[in-house]
Amino acid sequence: MNSALTLRCDDLWCELKPALGGCITGLWMGDIPVLRSTRAADLHSVRQSGSYPLVPFSNRVGHASLQWQGTDHPLVKNFEPEPHAIHGVGWERPWEVLDSSDTFALLSYEHRADASWPFDFDSSQAFKLSAGALEMTLSVTNQSKVSAPVGLGWHPYFAKHPGSRVTFSAQGRWEMGDDKLPTHRDSSAGLDADCGILMVDHCFDGWRGELHLRDALLHTRVSTSLTRLVVFTQPQRDNIAIEPVSHVNNAVNLMARGVATAEALGLTILLPGETFSCEMRIDVERVA
User: Fold this and answer.
1) Rounded mean pLDDT, 2-18
2) Following DSSP, what letter does each residue of 109-174 receive, concatenated?
């Protein structure tokens, strides 16, 4: 099993635990946590990590049943007591270290079709730390003999500090039913809200790929080419999940039911051998 990796550049540093879902255990600016952060040696559950990869889909596949090309593929219900499959499989599997240095790491995970996901794929994560910034790349290649639906994203939990405020622009927001699956899309301009009192658990689309999180200690900017964003927090939580993703929650099944097209939902369909990649950058600076 892989040991933890520590990346450092000036005052910014992070720890990775490849064997634990290829996760980031923590990201710090000096001694200030940027993400929900735990030292790698003390972290034993990926659900408590600072961030983990979403591959080959984000959020939920409704009732753990993938409806694809006229066939229902039963999936593992991996988030009890919910009846759904959630966040793909990459976060539950060990990743291998292909390369690493003081400021860079390259990880890989090879999936062969199983009860959790019925298509073969290869995936990789790259992490590059520079002065005041962490850059991440996530890729997936369809290694099956048939076309396959895929989605990518990240699930970082940003620490709430005093005065924490989240700001971003969007065009729409998917409302959810009691079963935590999307029901319909409403217009939305995004958010400009106090994280301390915010209650939200939605996927936004038409996102411009930039988000600001400002508080009394740090100014953090999240940027990506992805145009969808899941945001989750409640007043009692000491963190806010800010998840850049490629597709709407339960996108494959929404498409199968004719709710919207693959393009409108952000769903990527890969032919055998094709690759889909995305990037995300977290810029951090201290508040003077």
Assistant:
1) 95
2) EEE---SS-SS-EEEEEEEEEETTEEEEEEEEEE-SSS-EEE--EE--EEEP-TT-EEEEE-SEEE
